[in-house]
Amino acid sequence: MSTNSVSIETTINGEKTSIDVTATERLLDVLRYRLGLTGSKEGCGEGECGACTVYLDGQPVNSCLIPAYQVRGRVVETIESIAPEQLGAFVASGATQCGACSPGVVMTAQWIVKHPHLLQSHGLRELMAGNLCRCTGYDGIIDALTETLAANGSAEEPVSGQDR
């Protein structure tokens, strides 16, 4: 690494990690090209498509917008941290197709499943709005998420009829 780098310590997918980063490196690039965690995808590079969604301290963020040095001392979770059995509803309902958006969609959906109280003030489509899908549209995604919420006993009614 160049002399313009700084060493940071962070926790990624439950493992403490020390890595040298520069001021211009994005979290997405460090995850994909330096750590080999290629599940998060680069879609737009502008924080609009959600393909690069990861959790930072438990909150979904677009890793293409996060300078890598900002994760010092923080906890990062990528799609690789999601257990395969948690993806079952998405596969069964055909909610994924080409795979470009899938990691971000799953990360956001998993966050909603972990925080079902959000449905008291937001509809599923609104909560998923930061994730673009060009292949399947949103019906399969909403169906899979609704099925997962119901299976977890969190089938609160969305606040608007826009989710159907």
List strands and helices in order, with pairings.
Blueprint: E1 5-12, E2 15-22, H1 27-34, E3 53-56, E4 59-62, E5 75-77, H2 88-92, H3 102-114, H4 124-127, H5 139-151
Parallel strand pairs: 1-5
Antiparallel strand pairs: 1-2, 3-4, 3-5
Number of helices: 5
Label the overall shape. elongated
Corresponding CATH superfamily of the largest domain? Beta-grasp domain
Q: How much helix is in the residues?
A: 25-40%
Distance between the termini: 51 Å
SSE run: EEHEEEHHHH
Number of self-contained structural domains: 2
CATH architectural grouping of the largest domain: Roll
Query: How big is the Rg?
Result: 16 Å
At the first level of CATH, what is the class of the largest domain?
Answer: Alpha Beta
Bin the strand percentage: 15-25%
Classification by helices and strands: alpha+beta
Strand order in space, largest sheet: 2-1-5-3-4
**DSSP strand tally:** 5
Tell me about the biggest sheet?
Answer: 5 strands, mixed
User: Uncertain regions: pLDDT < 50 for 5+ in a row?
Assistant: 158-164
Rounded average pLDDT: 86
